[in-house]
Amino acid sequence: MQNVTLIGFGAIGRTLFQRMAGVPGLRITHIVVPPEHAAAAREHAGDAQVVSTVPVDTDLVVECAGHQALTEHVLPALARGTECAVLSIGALSEPGLPEQLAEAAAKGGTQVHLLSGAIGGVDAIAAARIAGLDSVTYTGRKPPTGWRGTPAEDVVNLDTLTEPTVILENTAREAARLYPKNANVAATVSLAGLGLDHTQVRLIADPTVTENIHHIDVRGAFGEMQITMRGKPLPDNPKTSALTVLSALRFLHNRVGAVTI
């Protein structure tokens, strides 16, 4: 039995907690939230303990709380030897943070896993990188509701939008910095391939679609690859793809499964 600590209990954390119930070999024993959110978390936490810091005796940490959680909780956990899996990949656009994670994991003699989240093909991109990549371009397209509460509101009127509109065209680093809750996919693709500063990103608000649509174009010595995914959002959070939760579930199933893929 692996004891798992969950960092964050928003839409992703709650859905992951519910989907993990009854999975053989895994048990969420602790849920880490800020003290001001503890009472609300306890209403849905079942037998799991709601705490404000990662317990030292947990086997595995799964982070789904946002960028601040990486510095506040993941880095210390790694440094003392606790294995961690991270969903907030967009946080790695912060200069120096990828190196800090690597150094903390090395210090603790453990690993940090960057989960694929809302996108597929990450394994193929990482494999193609070994032979050399020429270009990686990511285009993210979401309905206007998926961009509420973001800098897109300063670029276009989301309430009156009638046609697809580009709200950002820049590097993956800039996309992840400005749209951390929406552009984790861009950061993930870049870390698998050419890096944050050499991966091109276009973000589009599109009133003609109801799904989150991701398109990746990769070219290099291996050949060419185009991937398009039309992901449905989480019912509780239109900014997040349902596949994000499923990618964490796949990782956890692989931790205890006899066969992994």
From TrEMBL:
Aspartate/homoserine dehydrogenase NAD-binding domain: residues covered: 8-114
Source organism superkingdom: Bacteria
Chain positions recorded as NAD(+) binding sites: 118, 184
Presence of the UniProt keyword NADP in the record: yes
InterPro entries registered for this protein in UniProt: Asp/hSer_DH_NAD-bd, Asp_DH, Asp_DH_prok, L-Asp_DH, NAD(P)-bd_dom_sf
Catalytic activity line of the entry: L-aspartate + NADP(+) + H2O = oxaloacetate + NH4(+) + NADPH + H(+); L-aspartate + NAD(+) + H2O = oxaloacetate + NH4(+) + NADH + H(+)
One GO MF term attached to the UniProt entry: aspartate dehydrogenase [NAD(P)+] activity
Gene3D superfamilies reported in the protein's UniProt record: Dihydrodipicolinate Reductase, domain 2, NAD(P)-binding Rossmann-like Domain
Keyword annotations from UniProtKB, A to Z: NAD, NADP, Oxidoreductase, Pyridine nucleotide biosynthesis
Entry's EC annotation: 1.4.1.21
Active-site residue numbers: 214
Aspartate dehydrogenase domain location: 161-248
The protein's annotated pathway: Cofactor biosynthesis; NAD(+) biosynthesis; iminoaspartate from L-aspartate (dehydrogenase route): step 1/1
Pfam families: Asp_DH_C (PF01958), NAD_binding_3 (PF03447)
Known function: Specifically catalyzes the NAD or NADP-dependent dehydrogenation of L-aspartate to iminoaspartate.
NCBIfam families, alphabetized: PRK13303.1-2 (NF009827), PRK13303.1-3 (NF009828)
Record family assignment: Belongs to the L-aspartate dehydrogenase family.
Extra remark: The iminoaspartate product is unstable in aqueous solution and can decompose to oxaloacetate and ammonia.
Protein name as annotated: L-aspartate dehydrogenase
Organism expressing this protein natively: Hydrogenophaga atypica
Gene for this chain: nadX
